[in-house]
Write a structure and sequence with these properties.
Strand 1 and strand 2 form a beta hairpin. The longest helix has 20 residues. This protein is an alpha+beta fold. The strands form seven sheets. The chain has an eight-stranded mixed beta sheet with strand order 12-11-10-25-26-27-22-19, with helices on one face. Strands 13, 14, 15, 16, 17, 18, 23 and 24 form an eight-stranded mixed beta sheet that branches. Strands 3, 4, 7, 8 and 9 form a five-stranded antiparallel beta sheet that branches.
């Protein structure tokens, strides 16, 4: 009741402010006394005065963000909005990790933005719950975009955007290193479907993103797999985009975004394209174009080729062929990179009653599975379906689970429980001969329900996947809570740990697993065939390796942090916390994995 009351009062204050904005502006101090305090409740009047004190100059930039655009070692892209009267903008960059305002008197780099008029965007719809603003209200803006190039790899910079009439707060970013330390690697945050429409929904998504920032403070970027907002099509809402940026602006000032277009981001006003400054070369080079520029792009970060794919234009003639051709060129140009990750919104495999039978999903599978097979895509990060699911590794030709590619999956719950339909958790997934399809639920309030095996079987005529249930090799279910994932990349392993976030904004581990890519005869199968044993001896406070003389033994936490590194068959656990650890043992070209529980 308290939250609803506060929301109502804030909306009332916003409504009064909006009515004030229509008055001739001499000064806000003169306008507020024109209202009688006696006509309003004390709480709403206080909120009004507070809101007025926080008003910013009409020259101030807002909806500010950075995006990966090209080589992240040397480039960083910027975009922001201003009121329509501000026709020019700049980015100032200082080669200083902790620059102060005075440092910008002599910036390392100043970029003039490309500034464009953005006229008459739909501002609100009724469901936004913004009282005092008519649903047919239009707002105009200036969009500013700039691209910094020739930056120094592995360097932390400070920046601000705007111009002499008004500058933003100071933000920070770090360019990628050319070669990451093979042991430490790097992390990024993966979220999808914040999909908010009201103050309450934006509060959920901002808590999720801030919890992710707290959990993974050294993340190199935030990957968001579409449906940032709810309202799409011709009845879109720029207010929703403003809230998406403003409620998380402190995060976006300091973490670059990798954004994919979702179906709810598709609008006649092209809000998504106005707000983000991503690589638009696909449309420049392809005969078949996306409806919004910058929704198909790639980049290499460390030892991963990321390909951001837009499936929303699937119905355009020749689009799948153009997309396949583009993907092949990206792989050919980066043939020495170890990992290939495709990230997109619309699912290729999924298990909810909301989207498993979708005809568009079936068309995407039919067109793109052969491409994924040919290009040996390792991991597909998905969105759209608002449930948690670990699918595969899938043989993209037969649409079946790759034999022998999954080990160390735990049985933790009775199957059929909403939170965990398979009763599985964790696991090690070898993607050498298939693709792991992963969806980490959603970072927002909106959720869908997982199907059971019988329902999937009964729907085979719609989805055309013979043993769909059999593809769900890990955890699969719905907690009802928003989620995010910490994806940690090392030289030979990708650790994915997913967290739920409660109403207080606190994160709890929901599931963690690891992805490897190793030839048959090594790794998972070799460990069982050669009877290599890896276990915890809690009485002697040690981890023991038997059946092999190791060249390396590495102990990882479930989120991928290295806890110990040795060449011995026994490793002391003194000082290690209680809990689950993953142990990797290597000898020559063989790798062996085990899970150890320390008590």
């Amino acid at each position: 009741m308290e939250k609803k009351c506060y929301s109502f009062m804030r909306t009332a204050a916003v409504a009064v402010l909006f009515s004030l904005s229509a008055m001739p502006q001499t000064s806000v101090a003169q306008d507020i006394p024109a209202l009688k305090q006696s006509d309003y409740t004390v709480p709403t009047w206080t909120l009004l005065r507070k809101a007025v004190s926080e008003l910013t100059s009409s020259a101030q930039p807002y909806s500010i963000n950075m995006t990966v655009n090209g080589d992240p070692c040397t480039r960083m892209a910027f975009a922001w909005f201003t009121n329509p009267t501000m026709k020019t903008g700049k980015v100032q960059i200082v080669a200083n990790a902790d620059a102060k305002e005075s440092d910008f008197a002599t910036p390392t780099l100043t970029l003039d933005a490309t500034s464009s008029d953005v006229k008459d965007l739909n501002y609100v719809i009724a469901k936004n719950g913004v009282a005092g603003i008519e649903t047919d209200t239009k707002m105009s803006y200036t969009s500013h975009k700039a691209l910094a190039e020739n930056l120094t790899p592995g360097t932390t910079y400070s920046y601000r955007v705007g111009n002499e009439d008004g500058w933003s707060e100071i933000g920070h970013f770090t360019t990628a290193q050319r070669q990451y330390d093979v042991k430490e690697g790097y992390s990024f945050i993966y979220i999808t479907d914040t999909q908010a429409q009201t103050d309450e929904m934006f509060d959920v998504s901002q808590k999720t993103v801030h919890a992710a920032q707290k959990m993974v403070p050294n993340a190199k970027f935030v990957l968001c797999n579409g449906d940032l907002v709810e309202t799409s099509g011709s009845s879109n809402s720029e207010w929703e985009w403003e809230q998406w940026f403003s409620t998380m602006q402190d995060v976006w000032m300091n973490y670059p975004l990798v954004v994919a277009q979702g179906n709810h981001d598709t609008s006649t006003n092209s809000n998504f394209a106005w707000h983000f400054n991503t690589d638009a070369s696909f449309n420049a080079e392809s005969a078949v174009k996306t409806k919004m520029e910058g929704t198909v792009y790639s980049f290499v970060y460390g030892d991963i080729l990321f390909m951001v794919i837009n499936y929303e234009d699937y119905a355009t003639d020749g689009y799948f062929a153009a997309l396949a051709d583009w993907m092949k060129k990206q792989v050919e140009a980066n043939s020495t990179v170890k990992w290939r990750i495709a990230t997109f919104h619309k699912n290729m495999f999924t298990g909810s009653g909301s989207h498993q039978d979708d005809s568009d999903g079936k068309k995407v599978r039919e067109a793109m599975l052969p491409v994924f097979d040919e290009l040996k895509i390792d991991i597909a990060l998905q969105g759209h379906d608002h449930i948690y699911e670990v699918v595969g590794p899938v043989n993209n030709v037969t649409k079946t689970l790759v034999d022998g590619a999954v080990e160390h999956v735990e049985t933790v719950d009775p199957s059929g429980v909403r939170e965990n339909m398979t009763g599985k958790a964790g696991g090690i997934f070898n993607v050498n001969e298939g693709t792991l399809y992963f969806l980490n639920n959603s970072a927002g309030k909106k959720k869908y329900e997982p199907r059971n095996e019988t329902t999937m079987i009964n729907s085979i005529g719609k989805h055309d996947v013979e043993n769909y249930w059999g593809l769900f090799s890990g955890k699969f279910g719905q907690t009802g809570e928003p989620t995010f994932s910490n994806v940690k990349v090392t030289s030979d392993t990708i650790f994915i740990s997913t967290y739920t976030v409660n109403d207080s904004g606190n994160a709890s581990l929901f599931d963690s697993f690891k992805v490897i890519k190793e030839n048959k005869g090594t790794g998972l199968n070799a460990a069982s065939e050669q009877k290599v044993k890896i276990y915890g001896d809690n009485a002697q406070k040690r981890i023991v390796v038997e059946g092999i003389e190791p060249e390396s033994v590495v102990v990882y936490s479930t989120n991928g942090d290295i806890i110990a590194n040795s060449t011995s068959k026994t490793i002391s656990t003194v000082g290690m916390s209680q809990g689950l650890y993953i142990v990797k043992v290597t000898r020559k070209n063989d790798s062996y994995y085990g899970k150890v529980m320390l008590n």
